[in-house]
Specification:
mainly alpha, 3 helices, about 10% strand
């Protein structure tokens, strides 16, 4: 058995902002929503519940911008 080293540990990916960057990166490269968790868990310890929330938020269509009518005086 090889000796234990800190380099053999996976890094944690648990913060929403970090998960959003990683998920967006994979989505831009053609990964499907279902493949993102699998791909990230190969390289990181991932908070799966948080990742699912982030992926759903990224995949949702953007909310429409409210329109404002300006009156010229």
């Amino acid at each position: 058995m090889p000796p234990f080293t800190e380099e053999s540990l996976k890094r944690r990916l648990t913060e929403p902002d970090d998960l959003a960057v990683a998920a967006r990166f994979l989505m831009e490269r053609g990964y499907e929503r279902d493949e993102i968790a699998v791909e990230l868990s190969r390289h990181f310890y991932v908070d799966i519940d948080m990742l699912n929330e982030v992926v759903v938020a990224l995949a949702a269509p953007p909310a429409p911008m409210p329109t404002q009518w300006w009156r010229a005086a």
